[in-house]
Design a protein that fits this description.
single chain, 262 residues, 15% strand, eight-stranded parallel beta barrel, 8 strands, alpha/beta, TIM Barrel, globular
Length: 262
């Protein structure tokens, strides 16, 4: 392998013709990842926060997606436990950190994600991220510093109010709004004036820093168009389990509508 590699995730998030589309992966099936890639999603978000996936499953999901040309973001459960080091060496191109409420926490995450002198990530170029040793160490380090995407998840009133400071942290590459948790934290529905005002503030913070901004979206054109209209540049549409469940439910409903005497 020669020459610098370009990050697939950064390329997806910089699409000019429309929003980048991803979906959460909560199931341990590698075939699910294959089907998501075949469907044409730009990236996947492997969910280690709200799904019982282990590190080995995430490792295999990342590999399957990578070989199909789809980059992986991993939503880690937190900074503890050495998740980030191993997830990045497994080949993930993005880290999503839940409950990033302060700039200080964003700075701590950047240190875990980046190599020296920006951070404390250890070098392990004989991993998948280093092409199992086939990529020059310098390129392995450069990719980790310049191509890996860190996206704090903004999902509380405090985080929304601190969004400008979080967005200004060097090494923050995108923001993701967790609308359900933000709504729960505020104690008001997503469409309320309070939640809408907090979201608008995050949108402005991302815009001021020219950062991609993402959030959860439904699976319809109108749902995505609504997100784009509010200032979002990438959408995570549902998740593998819900997509399968909806398709299965629709299939059964269609089949049950047929009667022998029809």
């Amino acid at each position: 392998m020669s020459g610098p590699r370009s990050g697939l995730l950064r390329a997806a998030l910089s699409r000019s013709e429309g929003p980048a589309l991803g979906t959460f992966v909560k199931l341990p099936s590698q075939e699910t990842v294959e089907l998501i890639a075949i469907a044409g999603f730009d990236f996947i978000v492997i969910d280690l926060e709200h799904a019982p996936l282990d590190l080995e499953t995430a490792f295999r999901h990342i590999g399957v997606a990578l070989h199909l040309g789809v980059p992986s973001v991993v939503r880690v459960p937190g900074l503890a436990g050495g998740w980030i080091q191993r997830i990045l060496d497994a080949g993930a191109e993005g880290i999503m950190l839940p409950h990033t409420d302060t700039a200080a926490l964003a700075e701590e995450a950047v240190r875990a994600i980046r190599f020296e002198p920006w951070g404390t990530r250890g070098a392990g170029s004989t991993s998948r991220a280093g092409g199992w040793g086939s990529v020059p160490v310098e390129e392995y380090v450069r990719f980790g510093q310049e191509e890996v995407v860190f996206m704090p998840q903004i999902e509380s009133a405090d985080a929304a109010r601190n969004a400008a400071a979080i967005a200004a942290v060097p090494g923050v590459d995108a923001l993701f709004i967790g609308l359900a948790d933000l709504s729960a934290n505020v104690g008001e529905p997503v469409g309320s004036a309070t939640v809408t005002g907090l979201v608008d503030g995050v949108v402005q913070a991302a815009r001021d820093r020219s950062l991609p901004l993402g959030g959860p979206a439904g699976t319809t054109r109108d749902a995505v168009r609504s997100m784009v209209g509010r200032g979002f540049t990438f959408c995570v549409q549902s998740n593998d389990a819900s997509l399968f469940g909806a398709a299965a439910t629709a299939a059964v409903a269609a089949g049950r509508s047929v009667r022998f005497d029809a």
